């Protein structure tokens, strides 16, 4: 049982080490090591490369942005429609009140 637990913890450590390696570009920093000074061109070249992860992330971000814009347009249309409905309801209420006033003193046989 302990060897199984030890094996799991070693696997977990290796996974974390690999994650750190990926994060720091293949080099695991130590407290004694100083970061390498990179040029602007090196940084730009690193972030320009079309890796599948970056491309899919970029595509996902663009897709999310487009959906957000569509939702915004849809909400604007809904707000405009609700405003028109509110105005129509207000007009109907005022016409109904006016009709009620006119018909208040009339008898039913005079209609």
UniProtKB/TrEMBL annotation:
Compartments where found: Cytoplasm
GO BP: any one term: exocytosis
**Swiss-Prot/TrEMBL keywords:** Coiled coil, Cytoplasm
Output the SUPFAM superfamilies linked to this UniProt entry.
Answer: SNARE fusion complex (SSF58038)
Q: Give a GO molecular function annotation for the protein.
A: myosin II binding
- Looking at the record, the residues that make up the V-SNARE coiled-coil homology domain are 46-110
Record-linked Pfam families: Synaptobrevin (PF00957)
PROSITE patterns attached here?
A: V_SNARE (PS50892)
> What is the name of this protein?
V-SNARE coiled-coil homology domain-containing protein
């Amino acid at each position: 049982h302990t060897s199984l637990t030890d094996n799991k913890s070693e696997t977990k450590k290796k996974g974390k080490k690999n994650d750190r390696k990926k994060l720091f570009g293949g080099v695991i920093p130590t407290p004694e090591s100083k970061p390498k000074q990179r040029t602007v061109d090196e940084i730009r070249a690193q972030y320009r490369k079309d890796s599948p992860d970056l491309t899919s992330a970029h595509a996902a971000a663009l897709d999310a942005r487009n959906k957000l814009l569509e939702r915004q347009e849809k909400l604007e249309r809904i707000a405009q429609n609700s405003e028109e409905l509110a105005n129509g309801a207000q007009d109907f209420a005022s016409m109904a009140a006016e009709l009620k006033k006119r018909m208040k003193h009339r008898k039913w046989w005079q209609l």
